[in-house]
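Have a close read of the entry that follows and walk me through the local backbone shapes. See right below:
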Amino acid sequence: MAGEISREPLRPFRPPPHEWGGVCRHHGYRQPRAGGNRGRFPDATCLGHRRRPARPRRRGAEGGHDMAAVIRRRLRLPASPIETSLEGRAFVFSGFAVATLAIVLYGQDYVVPVLGVVAAAIGHVVSYRERGQRRGFWRQVLLAALIFGALFYVIADSSLALFGGVLPQANFAILLVAITSFDLKTRRNCYSSLWISLAILYLAAVYAWDYAFVVLAALWVLCLAGFWLASHVRRLNPELRAPAKPISVMVVASLVAGVVLFVVVPQPSGVPISPLVVSLPNFTSFRGDMESAALPLVQVTGGSAGATSSIDLHFRGRLGDAPVMYVRTGAPAYWRGLVFDTYRNGAWTASNHSYRDLPPYVPPRLLAPAPPDNLGTFVQTFRVLRPLPGVINAAYPVQSLYAPVAGLREDAYGAFHTPDQLRPGQTYSVVSYLSNYTPEILRADANTDDVPSLDISYLDAAGLSQAARSLAAGLVRTNTFDTVMSVTTYLQHNYRYTLDLPPVPSGRDPVDWFLFDVKTGYCEQFATAETLMLRSLGIPARLATGYATGDYDPVLNQAVVRERDAHAWVEVWFPGHGWVAVDPTPGVSPLAATKFPSHWAAGGVARLLPHLTIGAPAAALGSLGAIAALPAAIAVAVVVALLYAWLRRRGWSRLPRKQPGESELLRLYERLQRRMTRRRAPPETPLEYQHAMESEVLVDVTRAVNEGVYAGRWPDPKRVRDLAERIS
């Protein structure tokens, strides 16, 4: 009635529907615009969400409050809208599934990935259904506790292998995505989940040693693009049209041009980039004295670490094609392991059992200086595929190395030993010098009077018969290098390599039987014969064992080393350059010097991939004392997280609560828009959208939304259910 005063409480001014702009971070619907000709309203104004009244400031503290407000405003991230696109969330989950599939295929890990995918699927459903609701306090506490539990898992499994030690970093990332999938409300949360899945794919690249991994990487990129389209472009409801034929021609031409450049353009020469390292050490320590570990060339005898003390030429085990390790490197080389210096009765032994203890990360200052005329350094990263003796195989000479163990030991021959066997999945990295061994340089270094370390065992040829000494004497040349090459090429050209060799007859010396009877043999017999023949000529030499290069792929910069690649060769002493590898085995280069292969444009692609094992920073965790402090640190972190959550809850409790029917009505309005032929465009007001669509139920729903937003009279849940029945 005119003249009467309304008894309804005064309400803050609400802009009309045509002023709707951004999305409210609390409710998920449009906010008033911050500018334009229709009026100005603060960006934080939320339709249907009242502001907390400002507290009066004290005059003396105004300056401090203003400064604090400026700092908070600069450090605070902008509000992220609630992600309402079901398709976008499906792309986020698909990206995680693709990354997890890569871990399953290449990492041979199944339990955690399968559980993680199932949990993430449930979490995505829960997050989508509750995207418009406020985060619950106890749910946040539970999720934080689960994250700390996953953190404890990765530390315990990486350092102590409590859960098997299989891919702990990748499993931690999978668990992190699975846990946080129950709280993916905003668009920023979805992007965070995608970036974690990218990290999982990045870790899977460590174990991806074929080209099929490119398909999985492309699928993940498609998931990222699909999420961007679904969350940013789809909501604008545009009509995306493009000429199909020109685009197809452009794509095909780009692919052809890329392939041509891939094959034709040579890669610039240079030192390979050091790989990224990302894992934690094993804390097994040495027990007692160090023994030489067995190699696949000989029978395995000794202790639990595969320890043995000799190589017996009377016996040789059968070597198969099973992969032993992967090596990612820019330069294929001989992967040197153990060295032997004493030959008696057909068997090699190591006479010097001294060693020195070294940390897990061995910097260059702890090793021998760089050899003269070297061409720089190159990196090798080894991934163990089967249980191996505790020996670090690497290119020689070594500049620095890191292995995920409690400590290392270097023997008198420059070989590095670990406290225990190398387990499948372990990875270590080595940086080696690229020596410049050319015939001209070595020919000038001909002084053999300087016996290394005054060790006369390197000149001991007591096990060589007189007939073999006479054969060696006939191969002498004018200088040391030419004499070494003369003996090497003689063995390569006059003897045949084979693995199908009967056992050495009883009572016969294996070297004489090889040189004068069967004239066929395997690498140990070739190397032993040359070592003793060179010693008989006064040239210091010794037997080196390890692995040959393996099947090297110059495009991916990687080699697959198999059992059959177990190898033995000769190391000859040149005073100005140290021990130089020489290989008398037929079919290989006599001077086994490491060189960069002829790379093409794609040769450096694999250098961008990670290499799973921590580098020097991991040495800081190389003690049990640090591990002992972890439970206390985790407990303190949990207490801090709980305190922070409690304080946030106290702050949230002062916000006005939603009225009954508010969330239900807004979800119904979104559902109704999906039922229409199109959704409301951002610049379109609800009334304009209602007039354009001409739907009777839309009229009633729009009226109810306007009454709730501008008058605060939200419908009761019963009326919302009646409207929902009319839609269905």
